[in-house]
Amino acid sequence: IADETDFTTGDAGASSTYPMQCSALLKNSFVVLKGQLKMSTSKTGKHGHAKVYLVGTDIFIGKKYEDMCLSTHKMDVPSIKRNDYQLMCIQDGYLFLTTETGEDVLVSVMCARSEEYAEAIKHCK
């Protein structure tokens, strides 16, 4: 009889998220719940465990989200990286930027239903 054990291999790169107990999340911290969250804890109810009430704003589109979870629940916390660029010009829906090292970068901006976000980044030659 064949063994049904699944041995999955991982990737050597860094994970885009890491687990954290919900009660350990700090106010104004990032958590995977469709974006950036601001959070506060609620009091323990008469019946059951302490719960954490999460209120957050999606970091890409600004939409507000709310959720509640047990304080012992594991949440995914994203690894956030922010890059700052100098804007050179905007042309035909594209941003032309320069990095700190002087490299030119082209950023494609997508727009739908009055929402915009940087969709793709390409280094110019």
UniProtKB/TrEMBL annotation:
* Keyword match Protein biosynthesis: yes
Some GO term, biological process aspect, for this entry: which one? positive regulation of translational elongation
List UniProt keywords, sorted A-Z: Cytoplasm, Elongation factor, Hypusine, Protein biosynthesis, RNA-binding
Gene Ontology cellular component?
Answer: endoplasmic reticulum membrane
Superkingdom in the source lineage: Eukaryota
Domain called Translation initiation factor 5A-like N-terminal: residue spans: 15-73
Q: What is its main location?
A: cytoplasm
Q: Where in the cell is it found?
A: Cytoplasm; Endoplasmic reticulum membrane
What about PTM? eIF-5A seems to be the only eukaryotic protein to have a hypusine residue which is a post-translational modification of a lysine by the addition of a butylamino group.
Query: What protein family is recorded?
Result: Belongs to the eIF-5A family.
Q: What is this protein called?
A: Eukaryotic translation initiation factor 5A
From which source organism is this entry?
Ictidomys tridecemlineatus (Thirteen-lined ground squirrel)
Query: Taxonomic classification, please?
Result: Eukaryota, Metazoa, Chordata, Craniata, Vertebrata
